[in-house]
């Protein structure tokens, strides 16, 4: 190996070593320091809002029972099933107790030794167990035919009508709540996924913040609309501290941000211009920023015509400066379009200005040079004019 080959080998070795240490430093910062300081999120990655309400007075809590339908729908499944079972068992037992009271008052029970020719209010009720079984048969309309109401007692007839009507109401409410819980569009939102990280790179000659979103079902979301909110703590000129101050972030795609054709994964982007809150941030200062970017996608489910909203959030550690997403849509030899979700969240490093202000200053300087403005080599010197002609 001659001297030139050894120098090339040293250069390659140095480049590989620097690249390896760069990746190790990035991994160490992400997995060690990133875990040591977990930022508080208002919205989790799967769209849940991490907020709690304290010191709510009793009058405000009573409002939840006034709007009982929404309260039941918002319950978790374990509580909803508890309410479901308690509602039916409680009503069966309560009316069973009432049927027992009717038989006791009318002295139809065996301990009263009624005569054989006496017609009871309800046939074949011999105790609390048989009264409970008759209540169950009445409310769920099983009707075995062994126990039945006679025309002997008007109280029993009224109780039968009342239990039948109340049983229909309970059945309608609880079955409707279960069906509505299953078919809520929130479950459809689970099949809409966002990329784990957001990236900042050049797109169309502009510095942009890009996020990738995909629909995992072949059914579309009609009238989809994407927008964002930047949450951060700000201090007003009057000295007031506003926690979770919201700033609008406009996201667009190449075809516009209204009525998206959401059949394949889309890359939405926010242009970092002079009106953007990211304009004064740089690649070096981004990890030290304290903000949360919440992204919303609203749309109508094609199969049920119900509206749904998908949410996710990004903190500064999840915003990668100087990266872009890997392409994931390709075309097969058979003429079909194929989406490779293996590369959905993958990014590659690209050359990117380290701040938006630098990019725009560079563009302005280039434009001035083309127009010939501010030429430093041009010096204006005064010339004394003399009249060399004489009349």
From TrEMBL:
Chemical reaction(s) catalysed: K(+)(in) = K(+)(out)
Membrane topology per record: Multi-pass membrane protein
InterPro entries: Ig_E-set (IPR014756), IRK_C (IPR041647), K_chnl_inward-rec_Kir (IPR016449), K_chnl_inward-rec_Kir1.1 (IPR003268), K_chnl_inward-rec_Kir_cyto (IPR013518), Kir_TM (IPR040445)
GO BP annotation list: circulatory system development; gene expression; kidney development; post-embryonic development; potassium ion import across plasma membrane; regulation of monoatomic ion transmembrane transport; renal sodium ion absorption; tissue homeostasis
Annotated ranges, domain Inward rectifier potassium channel C-terminal: 192-364
GO cellular component, as recorded: monoatomic ion channel complex; plasma membrane
Ranges annotated as spanning the membrane: 83-105, 156-180
Places the protein is found: Cell membrane; Membrane
Domain Potassium channel inwardly rectifying transmembrane: 43-185
Residues flagged as site, Role in the control of polyamine-mediated channel gating and in the blocking by intracellular magnesium: 171
UniProt KW keywords: Cell membrane, Ion channel, Ion transport, Membrane, Potassium, Potassium transport, Transmembrane, Transmembrane helix, Transport, Voltage-gated channel
Predominant localisation class: membrane
One of the record's GO molecular function terms: ATP-activated inward rectifier potassium channel activity
Family classification: Belongs to the inward rectifier-type potassium channel (TC 1.A.2.1) family.
Record protein name field: Potassium inwardly-rectifying channel, subfamily J, member 1
Source species taxonomy: Eukaryota, Metazoa, Chordata, Craniata, Vertebrata
